[in-house]
Amino acid sequence: MPPPRLYGWLVLGFLLAVPGSAQTMPMPVDIQLPLFLKILTYDRSFQFKARSAITIGIVYLPGDPASVKAKDEMVSNLKRLSDTTIKNLPIKYVVLEFRDVASLDKAVKAGKVNVFYVGPGLGDQLPHLLKMARSYAITTATGVPEFVQRGIAVGIGMKADKKPDILINLPSSRSEGSEFDASLLRIATVVK
What we know:
Elements: H1 4-17, H2 29-40, H3 46-50, E1 54-60, H4 65-79, E2 85-86, E3 89-97, H5 101-111, E4 115-118, H6 126-136, E5 139-142, H7 145-149, E6 154-158, E7 164-169, H8 170-175, H9 182-187, E8 189-191
Parallel strand pairs: 1-3, 1-4, 4-5, 5-6, 7-8
Antiparallel strand pairs: 2-3, 6-7
């Protein structure tokens, strides 16, 4: 039996090596974002939900390096789209640091968020985020495929041929007020 300290490092190494345990994103953010924005155009209720702007709340966990990295990459990519519109709606964003539910709720209301981008590291917070999304009709999106299985409505994974895989959790998307067109659902991997 290895000494206790070495044993702890071995366990940590094993956990980090297990696929999916680290809440990884197989596709880079610069591929995810254009796909997410295109997917929103297939939501027949999104213009009503968005009203005057598409406001993406980038939710991240401070202190989690993968979460912070995803947030930074999403902000960088969104800055490049500052003059872009989708269905005549400007694209805005707000960075939402997850410290506790009450402060997140306040920031969501102040920022008029209608899309949550949920980065890695937030697996333990998913029940809170999903409850909030359903209460405020916020469309949830992620680059962590595991999160779609756990209730996030829209995700981007990777197919065996290394191409992006659009993931739609149909019950979750409906509970968030989305109504995706059948043409999108035909090309997506649908979770029921």
